[in-house]
Structure formats: C-alpha cells, structure tokens
Write a structure and sequence with these properties.
This protein is an alpha/beta fold. The protein has a single domain, classed as Protein tyrosine phosphatase superfamily (Protein-Tyrosine Phosphatase, Chain A, Alpha-Beta Complex). The chain has 5 helices and 4 strands. It has a 4-stranded parallel beta sheet with strand order 1-4-2-3, sandwiched between helices. Helix 2 crosses helix 5. The longest helix has 18 residues. It is globular, with a radius of gyration of 16 Å.
Length: 156
C-alpha cells in the first residue's frame, strides 16, 4: 500500500468513478491504481443508499455502520472494538495487494480521518498531518489503537 486517502462520500465516489473506462478503451480511465475501500456509513439511514463493490481496480471493500460520536448517545451506534479488529484485519490483508487504501465517511473529517491516521501509524508512517489539519474522532482512533496494542501484547 503506497498511500492512504481520506475522503468524503462524494469525493470517494468521484475517485472510484475516475477508474471507469468504456470497453476496450482503458487509456481513457483517469486513474489506473488498484485500491481497497473502507466505507464508513451512518446508522440512522442504514447507510448512504449505495455500496462500493469489487472490480478490476477495487480489490476489496469493508463497509461498517457507526455514527460520529465519542460516547454513547441514545439512538446512535458507537464504534466498537469488534469493528476496530475488522479494520485492522482488512488493512493487514490488503496492504500488499493494493496501491491505495480509500477511507471515507460522510464528510471525510472525523471518523475516516481517525481511521486514516491510525492506519498510517499502524503501517509505520507519520499520522501527525491528520491531527494538524483536522479533527479525527478520538474515540475511533483510541479504540483502534487499543485493539492494535492488545494484539501486539498477545503476540509476545
């Protein structure tokens, strides 16, 4: 995996459609990298009404439903350690298979930024830009970090 992209749902859709080309005319695709998608969707609408799927360029999709909250809120779904484990497993499985990991939520500012920051750090990169240029959801980041540390300790 060469890069992690954090986008809004709208920008993620544009990124994916930039890989499209008419039959027999691959040279017209605006992008040709391989990618995997972590699609974070809202629970109150049961998603955004569409799901990303695998294709010639898309080598995997993980869709999760949780809300942009940092503590329990009635009627909303808080990010869980089980969801964190699914993200960690997905990234670990795809890290050598794709050029790009595309992470999106509705606005691309809180939940997906937290996931992008954590993944960057998990893979040995510097996650500081995510915190300097925005506001990652602290609960999501801390839960991912906790699950990752638990796994590292269990391996010792």
């Amino acid at each position: 995996m060469k890069r992690v992209l954090v986008k809004s749902v709208f920008d993620a859709f544009d990124y994916v459609t930039d890989h499209y080309y008419p039959a027999g005319q691959r040279e017209f695709a605006q992008r040709d990298d391989t990618y995997a998608v972590i699609s974070i969707q809202d629970t109150h609408t049961q998603g955004f009404g569409f799901k990303f799927t695998q294709s010639a360029c898309c080598k995997g999709v993980l869709t999760l439903l949780f809300d942009d909250i940092v503590r329990p809120v009635e009627g909303a779904v808080l990010f869980t350690p089980e969801q964190a484990a699914r993200i960690i497993d997905f990234v670990w499985d795809k890290r050598d298979d794709v050029d790009t990991l595309l992470v999106h939520c509705y606005g691309g500012e809180s939940r997906s930024r937290a996931v992008g920051a954590f993944i960057t750090r998990m893979l040995g990169g510097d996650d500081s830009v995510y915190f300097e240029t925005g506001h990652p959801n602290e609960h999501v980041y801390d839960t991912l970090e906790m699950v990752w540390i638990q796994r590292l300790i269990a391996r010792e």
